[in-house]
């Protein structure tokens, strides 16, 4: 039986279109569905955004194989990846070399948020 709460979607933000949706029969199948969608949509030159649930090595490798790029959310409980990314960014952040970056500062809903985004090449651990 399919569960409406376990649906993987591909959404084109620029055009406001839902490109693909597939429900998972069982919890835990979302990763394979991610990879299938990425292959079906041929994500060449696309930026794929994923939350922490979908941050799986196989999924990221599928994006790279299809010549796409990705933005992922990484939480501290993903210790090895979090530490590798922190160290990778630290070396670039501390250097005076060229890097692509953008920063935004917002105040809404009673809180201030500051975001710094840097684009760096990566070689992530397995």
Topology:
Layout: E1 7-12, E2 17-23, H1 30-41, E3 47-50, H2 57-65, E4 69-72, H3 79-94, E5 100-108, E6 111-119
Parallel strand pairs: 3-4
Antiparallel strand pairs: 1-2, 5-6
Task: Give descriptors for this structure.
126 residues; alpha+beta; 6 strands; 3 helices; globular; two-stranded parallel sheet
Order of helices and strands: EEHEHEHEE
Please indicate the percent range of residues in DSSP E strands (runs of 2 or more): 25-35%
User: What is the end-to-end distance?
Assistant: 33 Å
pLDDT below 50 for ≥5 consecutive residues: which ranges? Answer: none
Over the alpha carbons, how many angstroms does the gyration radius reach? Answer: 17 Å
Shape descriptor reads globular
Note the total helix count: 3
The major β-sheet equals: 2 strands, antiparallel
Mean of residue pLDDT? Answer: 81
* Assembly classification: single chain
Please provide the count of β strands: 6
Briefly note the structural class of the backbone: alpha+beta
Residue share in helix:
25-40%
Widest sheet: strand order?
Answer: 1-2
